[in-house]
Amino acid sequence: MRKRNRTITIRCTDDEYERIHNKAQRYKLSLSDFVLGSALDKKIVVVDGLGEVAKQQKTIGRNLNQIAMLAHEGRLHSVRLDVLIEQHKAVTQAVCDIAKEVR
Q1: Measured over all CA atoms, what is the biggest interatomic distance in the chain, rounded to whole angstroms?
Q2: CB 35 within 8 A of CB 69
Q3: CA nearest to 94, candidates 48, 40, 53
Q4: Which of 103, 98, 100, 92 is nearest to 47 (CA)?
């Protein structure tokens, strides 16, 4: 991790400060990260819905892991994965849709 050891001080009006602060909050970034990203021409993207998609992916992964563990223990011999596969397809499509919006 890089060490930020330099300080830049700027002056702004109360209104400017509030606007910058509100934008940083909207992007869920610290004020420092938002200002640096903006000043260095970095693309700042807000992705709505990504948290829910990540939660669904974790759930599917957890289910697959549990199935694999049971199969390795010999407690599971046959599994119908069609429901899990359909859930995975839906979540993967959601990720693709979010990626298209970001571009």
Answers
A1: 68
A2: no
A3: 53
A4: 98
DSSP reduced 3-state for 4: coil
Whole-angstrom distance between the N-terminal and C-terminal Cα of the chain? 27
Query: Is the separation of the CB atoms in 80 and 86 below 8 Å?
Result: no
pLDDT(1) > 80:
no
With a CB cutoff of 8 Å and minimum separation 6, the contacts of 67 are 76, 79, 81
Residue pair 24/81 in contact (Cβ under 8 Å)? The answer is no
Q: What is the pLDDT of residues 21-46, one digit of tens each?
A: 999 998 888 999 999 999 998 888 77
- CB-based contact 87:56 (threshold 8 Å): yes
Categorise residue 49: left if φ over 0, alpha if ψ from -120 to 50, beta otherwise: left
Domain parsing of the chain, residue ranges? 1-46, 50-102
Taking a C-beta distance cutoff of 8 angstroms, is the pair 54, 62 a contact?
no
